[in-house]
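Render Tat pathway signal sequence in 3D.
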Amino acid sequence: MDPNQYIAEVELGDVEEQETLLPSDQRISFDTISTKHRSIQHYSAVLAGIFFLLSSFAVVEIWRKPSEAKCVKRLNGWSPMLDAVQYQRVDFKDESNVSFMGIPTAHLEKKWDDLWRFGSLGIPETYLPYLNKSVSEYDWHHLPSELGGGIQAYFEGFHQIHCLNLVRQYTYRHEYDYSHVHAFVNPHIDILEHVEHCLEILRTKIMCEADTTLYSAAHDLERGSNGPIHTFYSRWTRSEEMSVSDDRSKPSNSLWIIRNEIWRSVTITKQFLPKSLYALVD
């Protein structure tokens, strides 16, 4: 007999003998053990697959859900200011900020001017396609080369606040001397025509971005706020990261602007600008 066959028969006999020595209720079938093992492997694979699918679904949903910053970029044209927008939710009352209201004074005029007088900046011609425009479309005004060059551009948000301010000033034109304000003495455009232009700018803005927030009515307004809760841009720039200088020498990390016909610069740190605009501030 083949020695290997003999050893195999002896070992098999030993196993069978051991099985017969165990009580019937303690005997374990090797087939049963193998079946249970396969079942555990099967359930583990199913659970792993379910976990993977749920994780993938969660990642896709998070990726698809637009952030506030993405919403702003979808609702606005390209601008180097997009990454500087901040948000906060505010429940405010009517006439909640009276510091911008009332009969004009020098202090009040300065507060309004500080909201929007940030001048202009130079945009490279290569960025015109981002604005859906072309070099040959208009006779663009360029900034001097010593200020970095580029097509002169303004931030529309500041333009809109200027328009609101001009309407306010026109309302109080008989209570305050605005003879030093260019809009009131501009020989190229009548002040009323300018005001109507501004009203149209504001009407278009409001109608194109209609506010769907509910404005609730109340009999006793003194008991609480009847103003809506808004999520709005708390700042367009971060003041702690921006400074204005009359120095004509070009500082590092700066965008050049024209303000009140004086060469000035607005310093904005790179972290608030797209990488593609770094060339403007280097």
